[in-house]
Amino acid sequence: MTYILSGKSESSRLDAQAEIPQFSLKRELEGIDLRPGASVLDAGCGSGILCRYLEHNYRDLAIYGCDLSRSSLSHARTLSKRSTFFNHDFIGNPLPGSYDFIFNRLVAHHLTADLLLMGFKNFFNALSSGGELVVIDPDGLLLNLGTLDLQLRDQIAQVSRAFSGDLQVARAIPQLLRQCGFQEVSWRIDMMDFQGEARRLEVAQWKERFENSIDFYVSIFGTELEARRFIRRYLEEASRDDVPLFYNKFIVRGKRP
Questions:
Q1: 22, 16 in Cβ contact below 8 A?
Q2: pLDDT one-digit tens code per residue, 119-169
Q3: Which among 59, 83, 170, 172 could bridge 51 via Cys, Cβ 3.0 to 4.6 Å?
Q4: Which domain holds residue 59?
Q5: Is 122 within the bounds of a domain?
Q6: Helix/strand/coil (H, E, C) string of the chain?
Q7: Does 32 map to a domain?
Q8: Can you tell me the distance from the alpha carbon of 101 to that of 54, in angstroms, rounded to the nearest whole number?
Q9: Is residue 15 scored above 90 in pLDDT?
Q10: Is 93 among the domain residues?
Q11: Would the pLDDT of 12 be above 80?
């Protein structure tokens, strides 16, 4: 698994992102019954945002978080009150323990469908009988910018081809879960439409996302100068009130029989 976002500020960026209404955890968890005593894992927990939300809003949960990034886990441990965190690659390795709920949030687009299938199989095996997997991911991240700038559109397509994951894989998640043996697979699609203040906040997020993955863009465009020209062009278009900026957030659920 390759996660192109890195740097000391990435955990803080994720914390700030969670404050944008379009990334609302409350909305994402609507209709999910996290009963007292349940064991819950956030697989790919990053800075521990979901774990902290569960701590504050649900009683008597056994809360766990795992991630590849040791720096993110260190940040998560510093801010958490009672969650347990561990370093783990859930793609290539079975998960330790058994869980009633597994969440996989804002991770899927960093992976291909084949890698996701491997991870979902590991999730399936780590769930208790009747346990539930919830996968949350935006479809169209970076891509869904309604620009008429043909050069920028070509550059966005170039970035998409070079990206090791799949920026539109969210729409395939229901089928992937069925292939792994999950039953009662269902999904909800929330429009993430950025206008007004939400647009300003998301553009600020993109500025940090680009900065925290600058080496990736340099590898695509050849030099830092050309990479930053693309970034500046993207941010300028994304800041325009007449250019739609949106993603479709998939909240996909499946149960282990």
A1: no
A2: 999 999 999 999 999 999 999 999 999 999 999 999 999 999 999 999 999
A3: 83
A4: 10-139+166-199+248-255
A5: yes
A6: CCCCCCCCCHHHHHHHHCCCHHHCHHHHCCCCCCCCCCEEEEECCCCCHHHHHHHHHCCCCEEEEEECCHHHHHHHHHHCCCCEEEECCCCCCCCCCCEEEEEEECCHHHCCHHHHHHHHHHHHHHEEEEEEEEEEEEECCCCCECCCCHHHHHHHHHHHHHCCCCCCHHHHHHHHHHHCCCEEEEEEEEEEECCCHHHHHHHHHHHHHHHCCHHHHHHHHCCHHHHHHHHHHHHHHHCCCCCCEEEEEEEEEEECC
A7: yes
A8: 12
A9: no
A10: yes
A11: no
Length in residues, the chain = 257
Distance CA 243, CA 95 (A): 43
Amino acid 13: pLDDT: 79
What's the average model confidence in pLDDT over 46-69?
95
Is the Cα dihedral 63, 32, 202, 209 positive or negative?
A: positive
Token pair, residue 91, equals 């793609």
| 238 lies in some domain | no
pLDDT digits (tens, 9 = 90+) for 167-214: 999 999 999 999 999 999 999 999 999 999 999 999 999 999 999 999
Share of the chain above pLDDT 90, in %: 89
Looking at residue 194, which CATH number applies to its domain?
3.40.50.150
